[in-house]
Structures are given as structure tokens and as C-alpha cells.
Amino acid sequence: MKTFFFSRHIREKILLTALLALVGLVWLGRAGRSARVFWVEWRANAAMLATQRQWLNNRASIEASAAKAIAHLDPARTFSSTRLLGELSTIADQVGVRNGTTSEILGTELTNQFSVNTVQVAVRNADMPSLLSFYGELDKRAPYIGLEQFSLAINPTNPSLLSAVMRVSSVEINR
Amino acid sequence: MSVLPSLKTSASVRKKVVLLPDHAFFVRVVALAAGTLPAEVPGQVELALEGLTPFSAAQLCYGYFAAPGADRVLVYAAYRRKFTVEDAAAWAEADVVLPVFAACLGLAPDQPQTLLVTGPDCITAIGWDGRDAVPAVVRTRPFEADAPAGGRAAIEAELAASLKGFPAPVKVAAPTESASRIGDRGLEFSVGDLVSRFDSAQLDAIDVRDKADLAARRRDRARDLYLWRAFLGSAAAIGIAALLQFGLQGGRLWLKSQALRAAAQAPAAQKIESELGLANRIEELSTSRLMPIRMLEIVNENKVRPKTIQFLRTATKGLYVLEIEGQTNVTTDVFNYQAALKDLPACERVELGQTTDRGGLTHFTLTVTFKPEALRPAAPS
After folding, report:
1. Which of B128, B179, B253, B262 is the most exposed place for a label (fewest CB within 10 A)?
2. How many structural domains is chain B composed of?
3. B240 and B334 in a common domain
4. Which of B245, B289, B296 shows the shortest C-beta gap to A146?
5. Are residues B232 and B356 in the same domain?
6. How far apart are CA B237 and CA B231, in angstroms?
7. 10 Å Cβ neighbour count for B46?
8. Contact criterion met (CB < 8 Å) for A142 and B283
9. Do B286 and A112 touch (CB under 8 A)?
């Protein structure tokens, strides 16, 4: 190869070298970019696997802490999403706001040992004492039913009436 | 022992060496002025040639052999017209052009030695006196190609006799072009059982071609060498790129298997993660309850809330934050209310959000962050 190269005319030598350099630079540049993309993907994947490994390695302790969290709860007093809706309806009846109350199941999060049901309940055009009673009844059922969010707004046409929107959660133990 | 392996890659590339008949050259040993630097040797050689011959240096084919530390050089020259245009054209392709006897000068013995070099048409005697690597005597006698053996013996005897004070001569066959090897580090010839070596710095000196042409050739060689190295570098870059591409192909396959593994165990990991989240939520439901009514009681105290302030909407954010949207017809009361809330021991932070004034009514948003201890539920009786 060296003999061939040295026997070429100077223009051919320059041309050959330039051509090879161009190919080399373009290819190396492309390979470098691919390598960088690969590196980023590899790191992301490695990080994901490490996180997963951490969760899987701690499975036993997490399950133990979950079991501990529900240990003091009486399974018979826990609420499924349907039971929760019924209970909220009962409370609304008790405090006299049944007509202005709407409830909607937002979702259920499941684990092997328990599930957490979330419901949004809206009480519209109620007076303050009724709302306080409703809140009081909910509070009595803690920790089986818990209030996670609460908003209160006045009725623009009748400021003595209020509307409350609550996000309520219940624990259900799977036995 | 041969130094061929040390000539590295270029040694494998056969280059052309042209050997010229000894009898075409006259040879002289020229003393150098004391303290002559190596760079000054060519000038002194040219000066000596002008004194030794009636021709200018440009009309001569000449070369010389100098050695480090020697106070003399061996100069050999031939009238340029002794060689034909065809000869000169053939030299253009050669790497080195030198007389046959000059090929033996690289032997450089460190003690007195005499060599009788027998070529096809002449015999040359070279005598080293051991003072340095430069021969003290070089004498050539031509003979007819069909001369009888006795005639050659007589020439040998005459040459030996002329070298008085030198050891008995060693007879060797003249080195041939095919017995030479040239590389980046220099040139070597096989001379009988011996090896005559020249380093690359000596090559231009022993070469009999025009020195300006040689300098131009040296520049071209250096340029070609740079180009060759660039060529090799580019080829190496292509090789690395190819390796990288192949490596990445393999890496991608491996990465794909890792991604599949991650996807396979993702549901299990997410389930554990969600289990922890839910366990924390249950813990929170049991220990840290949201107290919206208590929050309203605090911000609605008569001594705190100016009478002009009217709440339009309140909403909790997390366990300890209450966002209040309100209105008033006295703008300064918004700031008074904010200041009064800040002074309450139950409030950690009070931030005034968007405030607009329209039709004599000021609408505002306040975000109140309570201290956790202020919202702690009363212990069950």
C-alpha cells in the first residue's frame, strides 16, 4: 500500500488523502453521535434498572410497613368504593343536604393487602351549619374515611348559601 | 548482525540503489579546518573540489563521506558528462546513487584495515588507518572484462603493495544493488560477510547527484511522508468508526435485552412503589388529618378579618395550606388582613397573590400556610 501511495503523482496523493480524510471524518462523526445517543440510552436504562432493583430489593420491608400501616384498622369497618358512596349518601341524608349532594368515584388504587378508594363529593347550596355537620360526620369515621381536599365557595346570588367540594378517601382491607 | 529489523516498515519497501563504476571517480581525502561544524562540511567540500578540479561543483557528480569527530572527509567526484542523459534519467527514480566503493565506507572499522573490492571492471583498495571512520587511502585500478585471472592478481598485488603500513588486505566482491536495503533509518549493504551501514543523515552526503535536487527530493519525501501519515490517520479513523459502528450494533442488542428486562420487571416495581405510597397515605389518614374547618376558624376570627373582607372561595392545598379568594371595597384592608394573619401564631406564611381592582371592588388571593401544630386534631377523649 505504501509503495502504491508513494508511486502516485502528488495530486493523486492529495486527492486520495483528502477523500479518505473526508470519509473518515464523516463516518467518525456519525459513529460518535450514535455512540452519544447509545450512552444516553444506556445510562437511562441503567438508572431505571437500578431504581427497579431498589424497589424489588425492598419489597419485604415495604410490605411489612404496609401491613403495619393497616394493622390497627378493623377490616369490617373499612369501605369499598360502593360502600363509601353509600355512606356519604347516608351522611347527606342525616344532615339534610341529600338533594344538593352529588358523588363521583375518582378511582381505586390496589395493592395485595389493601386498596384506597377516592370519591369526590359536592354539596351545593347548603347553609354553614349543615356543612359543619356533614364535615363532623366525616370526621367521626376517620381514619376509615379521610378528607384529602376541601373547597368552599359562596353562592353568588345568595351569599348565605355555600357549596363545598370534597375529595374523600377510604381504606379497604383485602382479606 | 543485520540491522534490517530496525529499519521498520520502510525496510520492507524495496527502493532503488544505483551503483556507479569506481574508475569513473577520482577520490581524495580532504582535511577539514579545525573546529568545523557538521553543517559547514558541505561548503568545505565544495571549496576543496574547486581547488582539486578545473570544474565547478555544478559540473561534477560528487559525494563525500564524513564521520562524527573526524578531522577529514573522503571526497569523490566525476565529471558529469561521463554519464549519459539516460543514466541521469535512471538516477531520478533512484533513492541513492553512489560509486561501488562508497558502499563499503559504512563499515567504518575502529582499527586499521584494508579491503580489496573486486568489481566487474575494476578493483578498489580501501585502507583505514584506525584514526577515525574515514578511509585514509582509496585507490582504483580498472581492467578489461575479459582480462585473465593472472592480470587481476597482478593488479591486486600492485594495490596491496601501494598500501604500505596497512594490514594485509581482505578480498571481497563488490557490493551489488540487490545486496542493499534502504529504509527511513538509513541504508545498508552486504560486503562479503560484513555489513556496511549509513544512517539517513549520511545518505545525501554519499549520494553523487546534484545537491539542490537532493534537497528538493528530501522536501518532497518529507511532504509525501506527511501525506502518507495523514492517509494512515484517515484510514485509522475509518477503522475506528467501523469498529465503533459494529460495537454499537452489539451494544444495541444488549441494550434491547436490558430494556426488555426493565419492561418485564416494571409492573412489579411499580406495584411495590404504589404500595409504599398507599401505605404512607393510610398512615397520613390516621395521623395527619386535613382540618379545613379549623383553618377557616383561624382566618375568620373577628379580630383578625376586617369586616369589609368577604370570602368568595376557599380551598385547601395539602394538609397545611389554605387558598382564599376574596373581595373588599376597601383596598387597604387586603394588606391589613395579610399583616394580621402574619401576626397570628398559627400562621407560618401568608402570601398575597393576584390582586385586581374593578368597579370599586378589590379581588384578591391569599395563600396561608399554617404551622402543623396549630392544626393538630384534639386527642380523642
Report:
1. B253
2. 3
3. no
4. B289
5. no
6. 10
7. 17
8. no
9. no
